[in-house]
Each structure stands twice: as C-alpha cells, then as structure tokens.
Design a protein that fits this description.
The structure holds two protein chains of two kinds. By secondary structure, chain A is of the alpha/beta class. Helices cover about 40% and strands about 15% of the residues of chain A. Chain A starts with 11 loop residues before the first helix and ends with a helix. The chains are: A alpha/beta, B alpha+beta.
C-alpha cells in the first residue's frame, strides 16, 4: 500500500458543477463569488440530504417511540458523530449543536463563564477578533467585574506574542481567539498559545468559524478546551453549528437554556438535568441542519483536506501576486502565503471599498466591503473599512483575473 | 443558467461631477462660530460626517464639514453644503425633502434646478444599497437645523 501517495489535485470544474448557485449570470456576467468568509455556497448533496430528511424521516428526535422518530434520532446523532470525527474529538458527547459559532461562544460565556469567572479575573483576547468573540466576553466581564486584555497585531497582520508572558498570569481564566482571522485570513498559532495558556491554568476557546472550513482541525492536537464552528461557512446550511468542549468541562457547566430535551426529572419546583451534550440542547433542535452539516463534512472529506488546502494555497499565491500588480493597491495580512487562507483584504488608493463593491457588482463580482465585524482591528490598521475578497474550494484563478479586471475598471472610473 | 435580472448602469452612478466632489470636496473644515455641530455615522458601513452650520437671521450663512466615506456619501455632503448656503431654514428643509424624493426615484425631483449639482446623484436611486450613503449628509443637515433653531 502506498503510504505517501501524492496529493490528489482538486478538479475545480467538477467541484463547481456541484454548486448550483454558482451557475448564474449577475448583471450580464457569470457570477464570481468572492465572499465565502461571510457565507459559503452549498453543494447539491447538502440540499438533497436536508430535503431527504424532511420527505422521508420527518419526526422529532429523542421523543417518539415510533419508526420515523427512531430514524430521525439516528440520523441526528450520526451527524454528531460525523462532527466529532471531523474534529478528532475523543467522544461524540463533547459535540453540542448550536446555531453557529456566535451561539457556541455565547453558550460558553453564559455557562462556563458564569460559573468560573469572578471579580478581578482576566480574559485574554486578541484585537483582531470578530465581534462575536469579543462582545460576549465584554458582557461577561462587565457583569462579573473581570478585566479584558488583548494580544496586539502587527502591521503584517500577525499576532504579536512578545508580550504574552506578561499577559498570561494566574488571574487569566480564559484565552479566546480565532483559529483564522476573518478580516485578514491570518492563521493564528493556536497550538503554541494554548500550550502557554494552559501553563498558567487558563481555559482556551478557539473560534473556528474561519478555520474549520479551510484547515484540518484536530482539537486534541490543537490542545484547546473549546472549539466553535459555523455550518454555513463550510458548505453546510445556515442556522447550524457546533461547540466542541472537553467532556469534564461540559459536564461541570450549568445548563444554557431551560426546556425539553435538556432535563432528566422535572418536578414543579426544580429539575435535574441531562448530561452533555443534551444538557445544552433545550427545545426541538435543527435536525435537518445537523444532517445537512454532516453531508457538507462528507463532501469536504471526500475531496480531502490536503487537496483543498493545496488548491487554496494556489489561490493565495496567485491572488497575492495579481493584486500586487494593481497600482495603488495595499494588501493587508501576512507576507508568507503559508500563514494565510485565501482571504484578500485590501484598500485601493483612489476608491473607497463601498465604491469598489458597487463597481465589481456591476461586473457580476461579489466581494465584501466594510469593517467585517472587526471594528477594533480596522481602527488598529488605521482604516475605516477594507474591501475583502475571500475564496473557497470552488474559486479559480480565473475568478481572481476577473477581480483584477474589475479593479482596473474602478481605477478608470475614479481617474477624473 | 438563470436569467439576468438587472443591469444597473454604472455610468449613471459615477458621473464625473460626483468623482470631482469626492476628490476635491467643497466647504471642508471647522466652523468655530457654528450654531449647530452634528456628528453622524452610518454604523453599517462606517461612513461619517461632522457638519457645522452657522445661521444669521434665519438664513444659513455658512456650512462646513469634515467626513470620511465612499464617493457617494462625501460628494452628496459636498454638494449639499454648496446648495444650502444662503438659504432660509425652511428652504433648506424643502431641499432635503426634494433630495429624498429624488432618492426614491421621483423623476420630477431629478430635474428640479433647485437641486443644482445634486441632480448628478439621481442615478443613486437605482442602487438601493447606496441610497443611505447619499442621505447621510442630509440626515446631518436636518439634525443640525433642528438644533440650531431650538428655542
């Protein structure tokens, strides 16, 4: 058996045929979708899996003693096992279904944070965090009288860890950071930070919303204690995501929301709660969403992490080279392509990002313009907004060529 | 493939006059003797304006601003400060109403000479996502008029 078989190359044209939304004209031109960091497209297998569930197995889970409910429950719990395997989690009970990474982080802030953070404690974040990994901790810190501290970022878009030893103290209860920056595409050295955080006894939460779609994730190797992901950024449906947490942490945490499914015995005055993960899953869950996310993971795994990463690295290198040819363009983020996902955040001297977005839209090119839910980072970079083109496995070098042509058109319009 | 649904005309949006005002805005700066100073921001996109108005006997004697943002927001503010100078408070409010009508696609408003250079912004009405950019300065104007005329 071949032990080091060469990486299979991604057949992008075949991949693209699986994404019906990509196949359309926008303003008379074939759509170029460069906003996957906001939300990805969904392949047919995901849509089919959800439709199939509603057509054949539609029933509530963990309730009925009849065939349909049994099947629905099985598919729902199978999906949980798929996520656990995808993250290399030791136990599927460590995977909690949530609406997305935002809810996963809020869940940890409201349960683990409520039980463990006290006055004078510190929570260490980074200045590049998405608002969803910032605001829940602000709310917690304000309620508890805790203090937020921040790892800074350099001009090169990389976290500045030179102060980390001073920032991590016995008061640090939690370190929360993104696996990959949504605004810059920087891959953060999560493993190193987790190791150093654990040395002072802090718990580590990783916001994987931009990591899980692009990088192989092994929560045991990363050494984190919580990992949050959003289904809709990794080819899955909107409204489903997962929180992974170490079982002993989850088991010791108070419940999140009260209701059905999260209980054991209910008396009029008090109740006992289910064990994880169901303790955190009050109410009828998003069963079709979970099944859709499992189908998305199946799609990603069939293509293979290595092939996806190699394809995206090709886009990173090509994109960096082409964008740097554009006169007056400043590209943010690290120099080393290996430290990036295929996210290009940039400013064009002559035209504001919103104008760029409108001009590109007229050419059928979808990019994001604005602060990318990272207002503190924008202030740190000294800009009000950037234009961001973010790629995924279905993007091609031709898409980047179209972007560069669109930017030339913007320069022409703004040359008066 | 799906049918193409819309083809906005970029030329109607980015007229040369708009780009000129964006690159060289009129009436920039502070107004030390302002009767009203308003800071307004669009939280969605981060565009902002600081508008100062000085009134004399019910008339706008001077209007100055500092701002940052896209060409549509900044050109709209630049043109607005040109056109409201010398106008009475009522006339300025009427212009704001007229401009909003133009942003909602009113063809009559788009030909109204009272709007001056601002008519170059008529094309914005065909880009619904950008209408709020064009209105930022006018929201600031209405707030400034309210403050300046408060008893």
């Amino acid at each position: 058996m071949a032990t080091n078989a060469p990486t299979r190359l991604l057949d992008v044209e075949a991949v693209r045929r699986e994404f019906p939304t990509l196949d359309q004209l926008v303003n008379g031109r074939p759509l170029v979708y460069l906003d996957s960091a906001a939300t990805s497209m969904r392949p047919r297998v995901v849509l089919d899996a959800m439709t199939d569930f509603y057509i054949h197995d539609n029933a509530n889970v963990h309730r009925g003693l009849y065939e349909l409910s049994r099947r629905a429950t099985e598919r729902y719990e199978d999906a949980r096992r798929v996520v656990a395997r995808f993250l290399n989690a030791p136990d599927p009970r460590e995977v909690v279904w949530v609406r997305g990474a935002t809810e996963a982080i809020n869940l940890v802030a409201m349960t683990w944070g409520e039980a463990n953070v006290r006055e004078g404690d510190e929570i260490l974040l980074t200045v590049v965090e998405h608002h969803s990994n910032l605001v829940p901790w602000q709310i917690l810190a304000q309620r508890k009288g805790a203090r937020l501290r921040f790892i800074d970022v350099g001009e090169d878009g990389r976290l500045r860890l030179d102060n980390l030893d001073k920032q991590l103290t016995e008061r640090t209860k939690l370190v929360a950071l993104g696996h990959v920056s949504n605004a810059l595409g920087t891959i953060h050295p999560v493993k190193e930070i987790a190791e150093r955080a654990h040395a002072v006894g802090a718990v580590v939460l990783v916001d994987g919303a931009q990591g899980a779609p692009h990088l192989p994730v092994d929560v045991q190797d990363l050494g984190c204690d919580f990992y949050a992901l959003s289904g809709h950024k990794m080819l899955g449906p909107m409204g489903i995501g997962a929180l992974w947490g170490r079982f002993e942490l989850l088991d010791a945490m108070p419940p999140y929301q009260g209701g059905g499914e999260m209980i054991n015995i209910v008396e009029l005055e008090c109740s006992t709660y289910a064990r994880p993960p169901h303790k955190f899953e009050a109410g009828t869950p998003n069963v079709a969403g979970a099944i859709g996310l499992a189908a998305a993971i199946g799609f990603l795994e069939e293509l293979g992490h290595d092939a996806i990463r190699e394809h995206e690295q090709l886009l990173v290198r090509y994109g960096m080279q082409r964008l740097r040819e554009v006169e007056g363009l400043h590209l943010f983020g690290p120099e080393d392509p290996e430290e990036r996902t295929a996210v290009f955040s940039f400013a064009l001297e002559c035209a504001h990002p919103h104008d760029l977005s409108t001009i590109l839209d007229a050419e059928g090119i979808a990019i994001r313009a604005g602060h990318h839910c990272t207002q503190p980072l924008m202030r740190r970079l000294g800009v009000a907004a950037t234009a961001r083109a973010s790629c995924y496995l279905y993007n091609t070098t031709g898409d980047i060529d179209r972007l560069v042509e669109g930017l030339a058109e913007a320069r022409r319009i703004f040359s008066f | 493939m799906d049918q193409d649904r819309s083809t906005p005309d970029l030329g109607s949006l980015y007229q040369e006059l708009i780009i000129r005002h964006y690159r060289h805005p009129h009436n920039q700066g502070e107004l030390p003797d302002a009767d009203a100073l308003v800071h307004m921001q669009n939280p969605v996109c981060g565009d902002e304006v600081r508008l100062g108005l000085a009134l004399d006997d019910g008339r706008i004697r001077d209007a100055r601003f500092r701002g940052q943002g896209c060409s549509i927001s900044q050109a709209s503010i630049s043109m607005m400060t040109d056109v409201v100078k010398g106008k009475t408070v009522e006339e300025a409010r009427a212009l704001a109403d007229r401009f909003k009508e133009m942003m909602h696609g009113d063809a009559g408003a788009a030909k109204d000479r009272a709007l001056g250079d601002l008519r170059a912004l008529a094309g914005v009405s065909r880009f619904p996502a950008r209408v709020k950019c064009a209105l930022l300065g006018w929201d600031a104007l209405e707030e400034a008029l309210k403050r300046a005329t408060r008893e």
